[in-house]
């Protein structure tokens, strides 16, 4: 290895290490906040962030991408934890990891590239709203009877004040320096301010101690029977879907920024393995994190080392600095999450109204609302279905025909557009068998036959002309069409040199 290449490797390693340390610092406040959202011990969030970050960085399909405990999965966990307890969560995370492994083994990760941009916008906007709404629960306190009430009076003003201070620091500090994550600086500043001024407010330590050692292997303490399976399976599918969707969308984003190509199926396997480990070692599970990934990528980190360093730094925080983390005011975490929500939301969506097709705005709004009121997985799947139907409808309207008579008195239909399931009705309406002459030619040179529904429509058209004793000639169909047509097969004029070469999407083709 030459001296110049060694120097370049050292510089790259230095960038990855410094970026990893920065990412680890940025992961701490969010891991704690998401754990609180999920109603679990903050240590459960930190363990998840450590394990997810380390395993996916070492074995995942997108070097430079950062994973950890996320709000999108945390909001799904709330109902499960509240109704059945954290042990059921651990069992669910293991099953979700198994489902993600199966997804990767079946090589289904590539299909995430088919997600339309409006669906991605709705996904991001819905996630931002969910994160913000989840913070409202921290404005409630329990009375002596165990009932929740909104915080009022001086405690409310103090909490709002600390939240505002946190948000101001996060927004203004990057304009002065980017040497340290603004979120971490804000949390430390608010914690010191509260301590020095004697401000009494709820802290992480008031909820639970986060002092801990190394994660220990632990099989979830739940009845391993059919009843338990009925409880955890629905949540496992949702968590697996939400985790994979957010991860693979983040992978796509990093691909675009770096101009490289990640390996989505390998990333699915790594995410599944990491979640299984989380379930057995007391973590709440997670997926890729857009915010922390952008911190890493913008710092210039492109290799696995940065994520590995971030994971190991998180573990060192758990082992050696737990007493400091326990002094963090809850208001600081809420402020961080409000900023995360604001920065996650794509405000450009509002500027796009009137500039992009109305159906795209409808998809964005639908995915956003479904995300807020149900879950991310359902929202994205619904958005893809709506986008596909809109696409089919728009293309179905583009089929057209020009007619003319040739010198031999034959009527020629020159088709344009695509014949497929959504356009077959319009295709049939283009023809007038009763009014046509004895010989009719249908020219497919500028049209494409896409599926079995189109073939059935062509066969049906041939049958109509055959019934009234007229001759129909079909020109420039692909070989696939010729093979699959039944009644119209004898009416196809085959020209090897001129006929198009495309394939028809049909199950009958082996």
Question: What can you tell me about this protein's structure?
Answer:
With 510 residues, the protein is an alpha/beta fold. The protein has 2 domains: 3-388, no CATH class; 397-493, STAS domain (Transcription Regulator spoIIAA, 2-Layer Sandwich). It contains 20 helices and 9 strands. It has helices spanning 3-37, 42-59, 71-84, 86-105, 117-134, 153-176, 182-197, 204-207, 226-258, 264-280, 290-298, 304-320, 322-325, 330-344, 348-352, 358-373, 376-396, 424-429, 452-467, 479-484; strands at residues 67-68, 140-142, 148-150, 287-288, 400-405, 411-419, 439-449, 471-475, 492-493. α5 packs antiparallel against α14 and α9 runs parallel beside α11. The protein is elongated, with a radius of gyration of 29 Å. The chain starts with a helix and ends in a 17-residue tail after the last strand.
Layout: helices, strands, pairs:
Elements: H1 3-37, H2 42-59, E1 67-68, H3 71-84, H4 86-105, H5 117-134, E2 140-142, E3 148-150, H6 153-176, H7 182-197, H8 204-207, H9 226-258, H10 264-280, E4 287-288, H11 290-298, H12 304-320, H13 322-325, H14 330-344, H15 348-352, H16 358-373, H17 376-396, E5 400-405, E6 411-419, H18 424-429, E7 439-449, H19 452-467, E8 471-475, H20 479-484, E9 492-493
Parallel strand pairs: 6-7, 7-8, 8-9
Antiparallel strand pairs: 1-4, 2-3, 5-6
Helix pairs in contact: 1-2, 1-3, 1-7, 1-11, 1-12, 1-14, 2-10, 2-12, 3-4, 3-9, 4-9, 4-10, 5-14, 5-16, 5-17, 6-7, 6-14, 9-10, 9-11, 9-17, 16-17
